[in-house]
Design brief:
By secondary structure, this protein is an alpha+beta fold. Helix content is about 25%, strand content about 30%. It is built from 6 helices and 8 strands. It has helices at about 1-5, 40-55, 100-105, 135-140, 145-155, 170-180, and strands spanning about 60-70, 75-85, 90-95, 110-115, 120-130, 195-210, 215-225, 230-235. A 6-stranded antiparallel barrel has the order 1-2-3-6-5-4. Helix 5 (about 145-155) crosses helix 6. The longest helix is centred in the first third of the chain and has 14 residues, at about 40-55. It is globular and about 60 Å long. The two termini are about 35 Å apart.
């Protein structure tokens, strides 16, 4: 009976590139102890991020951004790029006019981030409130983007439906052409008011190091005004 149930599943107990239903890989590349952690989670993140870059991790700035709409509480996630880290929080950029995440944060200005660096068997989780960056701050990053990416930000009504009966992808292409004509000969393209940076102001940051037998090392920083550094650090059960 058990074998029959397994055969009915499209996926069952995957284990990387091993045959289906094999035992999962063991994590053996590192350990994490309290004395290795900086008192400041931003400095700790910067140290891990720098290590990931130097170790050749592919696009270590890739991060899963999760938001939730109220009152339903429905959660949505997507991968974006971390573009800035400062003393206040983690910054990503996107459309904040028509996108699903825009609707989510309008009703519930909270978000979480999850980084996964497989080559190092490490992950970092971030939770906190969010705030929009100013137009001036967003313009500073926007000016660094490829011209076509800046044009694309104007042209795309992110997450809205491109109806096939109206041309599908060709509708988007026409919008791009219209924006190109609008800013023809100009490099000083202004950032759209519906596009820009979102800063996650963390209340919780967790650092996770994979260990054998799923007995991982996990340390959580939680804001605590009663501590000298403003953060309470605790080891969590795996």
């Amino acid at each position: 009976m058990a074998a029959s149930n397994q055969r009915s599943k499209l996926i069952f107990a995957p284990a990387g590139t091993k045959p289906s239903a094999a035992q999962a890989d063991q994590y053996t590349k590192g350990t994490l102890d309290r004395h290795q952690l900086d008192a400041d989670p931003f400095r700790q993140f910067h140290a891990w991020f720098t290590h990931a870059r130097e170790a050749g991790v592919h696009q270590p700035e890739t991060v899963c951004l999760s938001t939730a709409a109220l009152p339903a509480g429905a959660v949505s996630s997507r991968f974006v790029y971390l573009k800035e880290l400062d003393a206040r929080g983690f910054v990503v950029y996107s459309n904040w006019g028509t996108s699903r995440k825009a609707a989510d944060v309008r009703s519930n200005p909270q978000a979480s981030l999850a980084f996964w660096w497989a080559d190092l068997e490490r992950q970092v989780r971030v939770e906190g409130k969010v705030e929009r960056l100013t137009g001036e701050e967003s313009q500073a990053y926007y000016d660094l983007r490829e011209r076509r990416s800046r044009v694309g930000a104007w042209a795309s009504e992110q997450s809205t439906v491109l109806r096939e009966e109206e041309g599908g992808r060709r509708v988007l292409d026409r919008r791009v052409e219209e924006v190109e004509r609008r800013f023809e000969g100009r490099e000083d393209i202004p950032v759209p008011d519906f596009w820009g940076g979102l800063r996650v102001l963390p209340s919780v940051i967790e650092f996770w190091q994979g260990r054998e037998n799923r007995l991982h090392d996990r340390f959580q920083y939680r804001r605590d005004a009663s501590t000298p550094d403003g953060w309470k650090i605790e080891r969590l059960s795996p």
